[in-house]
Amino acid sequence: MITPLFRNEESGLSMVHDISYSGLLVDLAEKIFVVATLSYLVMHSRHISGIWEGRKKTRNLIFPILLFGAFSIFGTYSGAILPNGSIVNIRDLGPMMGGLLCGPLVGVGAGVLGGVHRLLMGGENALPLCLATILAGLFAGLLHRWKKGRFIGVFRATFFAAAMEEIHIGILLLMARPFSKALDIALLAGPPLIVINALGMMVFSLIVRNIIRDRKTEEEKSLLNSELKRKNHDMEIAREIQKSFLPKEIPELEGYEMAATTRPAREVGGDFYDFFPLSNTASGFLVADVSGKGIPAALFMALSKILVRVCTSVESRPFAAIQLANEEICQYADSGMFVSLVYCILFHRERRLVYCNAGHNPGFLFRAESGEITWLRSSGPFVGLLEEIRLSDGSEILHPGDILVLYTDGVTEAHNMEGEMFGEKRLISLIREGGNLSAWEIKERILGEVETFTGDQPAFDDITLLVMKLI
After folding, report:
1. Looking at the domain 4-222, which fold is it?
2. Which end of the chain is more exposed for a tag (fewer CB within 10 A), N or C?
3. Which CATH class is domain 246-470?
């Protein structure tokens, strides 16, 4: 039976409805669902986002005050009357949510809207109920300020909501008269009042926590993207700098065709090639491969290229120039990096090629007349690995149509989807089949075949290719 005392406590509530204890759980679930829906919508409002981002000017607080105040008024109208006449509602939840999320001004503002609305509805206990709602928003806002704007967390927010409803009941006991009636209300309505507001706050807090995590994740993504863009920009600059170390153009030698290219497996690489005149009748060129990949290899590549170029200007014999370069590079090779290379001197009129291979893939000469292959094999170890090395020169006479191919292992060791390597046999077959092509066409054909062979496989290593043809 419903007594007049409890009807007067929330008089004039058209949406307040009687409910049995058996239906209380269902009603609580409905209210929590409403809390979750409204909380989700509120948290994704641009006005709330603005407050979280530090834009707490008065005009930015008006909307949250109205929003959480409306939530409080809704909580009053959505109350449920138990069979014993006790009324349970979530009027305090809106101000508490506003205060915890946005600070004292929003908490108090929403509390005033919800509390004054309840006060204007009248009833014996209107004043203490009004005061309790305002204090709920105030204390929540003070917690927000104490935490310097950081949300207090799910457990603390839930505990705070339960504590505020206990204070709500305490205010009712202190101010309502007669005391015996107030005590009856506290005993009957207090426990479900505490439970529903605590559960509602827990749901709200879980939503806030997830959104905070999402925002943090988005911020981290944004920072990572910014850092990635910066690094990409830096790598692009590094790529351009590395390109500047390569010859600007391929030299034009009467009676010879020359073509060369390098493709790093990453943004920058350790392969390089070089052309340089030695005299009116001789030119030097080389292909080299630094151990490793990426920026360390690129830095070592720059050092090696400069030192080799200097040493070739000092020593006239290829082996002597490379041995001298090894001595210089070893002084800077504390990182354990090294370089393999093939250095050639071409004597134009004599059509003679003198070369030195220091641990590099064996280049080869395709003899146009016989179709045979002459290998330019290594005569010693890598450069920069040992302080003292002994190298030797090789020499070959060139004939019209002969083709010289120098390359790095990114060509022959390129893998396809089945794990098979491109290999030297395929490379030689391409040269034999394309003997009538120009040096540039041969270079492009090799690169195209390697690309087709590897398909979608990522590049195994840097690719550098130099082709020379006697015409």
Report:
1. Arp2/3 complex 21 kDa subunit ARPC3 (1.10.1760)
2. N
3. alpha beta
